[in-house]
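== Sequence and structure of one protein ==
=== Format: two labelled lines per protein ===
==== Data for this protein ====
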Amino acid sequence: MPSRIIENNFRSDRLPHIWCPGCGHGILMRSIAQAIEELNLDKDKVCVVSGIGCSSRASGYLDFNTLHTTHGRAIPFATGVKFANPNMHVIVVTGDGDCTAIGGNHLIHACRRNIDITTIVFNNNIYGMTGGQYSPTTNTNDFATTAPYGNIDKPFDICELSKGAGATFVARGTAYHAKQMIEYIKKGISHKGFSVVEGMSICPTYYGRKNKKGSAVALMNLLKDNYVDVALKDKLPKEKLENKNFYGIFMDIDMPEYTKEYEKIIERVKWL
């Protein structure tokens, strides 16, 4: 029997999903459904928008108002949905390539505007669906089909990029730290402003094989061992933080929200 989460939030006729065995995206997608369930949101007032890529399959499985758009353009489509329906909970599901390469300009301007959209980035450090090319988050010296001798680019830190561009809620979870991921998504949806929640995923098929990282279990253990709660950053000795990454909440501030500010303009010009 399917769980209550599956029954209430998924299109059962579209399951099982088509992600590769061991892919972390299913955990992140379920985290979104769990967060919506725990917030007790009206399904008719939730819209999930996705672009192109492995992550963007999620909009086909989730049973809400959904929109599967073009490559890198999920955020501008979501912006249109939010302007047309300001009371809608608009959630973007995107990947590291979809969001920070072809969609990078849209990301930084949505951050700058502080529009009330929650953007959840499934980051597996590679382009999965299109053949294993390196993405803007592929680590320097890692291998990909388009970097057979190693990647010479420096990777983006999506959370730092979003903070710098003006996002008012920024957090990072992982497919291993699923309970924390659910809480960050809940906080992101509840936040009135532009929220970015990065979900570190795993790609055994391309990233794992190309970089000889081992099985899906081994990749999941890397998330377990390499990510530390940011709340412990100032409490642990330096040697325990060496080569570690952080999960947690990195930004949570209140600023004027874009659609509300636009509504003020509409009210002003009514009387001109």
User: Anything to note?
Assistant: The beta strands are 46-50, 65-68, 89-95, 117-123, 169-174, 195-200, 227-229, 245-252.
